[in-house]
Amino acid sequence: MKNIRTLGLYKLPLHVAIIMDGNGRWAKKKELPRIAGHREGIKRAKEIVEVSREIGIKVITLYTFSYENWQRPQEEIAVLMQLLKNYLEGEWENLVKQDIRLIAIGDLKLLPPDTYEVLQKVIKNTAKCQTMILNLAISYGGRQEIIHAVKVLIENVKQGNIKSDEINEVIFSQYLWTKGLPDPDFIIRTSGEFRLSNFLLWQSAYAEFYITPILWPDFNRFQFIEALKEYQRRERRFGKISEQFREKDRK
Ligand code: IPE
Ligand code: IPE
Ligand code: MG
């Protein structure tokens, strides 16, 4: 692992989540088809995953395809699914080599069968990797995730496995697709949009946000390190006051 201090880093988020936006606009600016933007975007995803592992981030979630993205033109969806499949096929050995475990959140049943199959294969083949978790949000929507959790929870209450009085934040979290993962500390969105677009609605309650106008295919390791430097300047108070944290530090 790199000595992060040489990069000016001393406090890393445990879990970084990224809304990789702006591929289409990047391509348009260059008078290229949208797919060229998606292709270039995949290169940046690989680069950011690699540097995250190098510096010691433990979990990285990439918003790869939203539930609402199913409403895009069929041709674009087909291309995105093909690119995802190619990425998984081409990358899984490299993930194993880097000791990165791949997992996925979202309504995965909606994926084309061949993409779904490859995804499951990579999940299985990287299951023992421990250095970092790469979590792909695919066919993912925060509202859909919450509704799904509520339905399973109701079923469990009906079966008598849990009493409704016992439900709290910790228990509810275990019914989400992100079960077992820490909440994201830092959410990056590229391409300048100030919105969540249905990403990690429950989990982002106390995340720090970073929005950059840079389009995703231009977001490289240097911009990522800059973003992480901004993160370490933030004071996360979780509803308390500064002095309470300083007191704790003195102990
Ligand atoms: C992000 O880029 C990739 C996906 C949503 C799959 P976009 O395709 O949304 O690019 P813009 O926002 O149109 O520029
Ligand atoms: C969010 O980007 C989804 C992904 C990056 C995968 P969108 O481009 O779909 O978001 P909106 O439509 O601009 O909100
Ligand atoms: Mg977009």
UniProtKB/TrEMBL annotation:
SUPFAM superfamilies cross-referenced by the UniProt entry: Undecaprenyl diphosphate synthase
Q: Where does substrate bind?
A: 22-26, 34, 38, 66-68, 70, 72, 189, 195-197
Cofactor entry: Mg(2+)
Sorted alphabetically, which PROSITE patterns does this protein's record hold?
Answer: UPP_SYNTHASE
In the record's cofactor note, how is the cofactor described as bound? Binds 2 magnesium ions per subunit.
UniProt keyword terms in alphabetical order: Magnesium, Metal-binding, Transferase
Top EC group = transferase
- GO MF annotation: an example: magnesium ion binding
Q: Name one Pfam family in it.
A: Prenyltransf
Query: What InterPro entries does the annotation carry?
Result: UPP_synth-like (IPR001441), UPP_synth-like_CS (IPR018520), UPP_synth-like_sf (IPR036424)
Task: State its role.
Answer: Catalyzes the condensation of isopentenyl diphosphate (IPP) with allylic pyrophosphates generating different type of terpenoids.
Q: Which NCBIfam families match?
A: PRK14830.1 (NF011405), uppS (TIGR00055)
- Known partners and oligomeric status: Homodimer.
Q: What is the protein's given name?
A: Isoprenyl transferase
Tell me what organism the protein belongs to.
Answer: Desulfofervidus auxilii
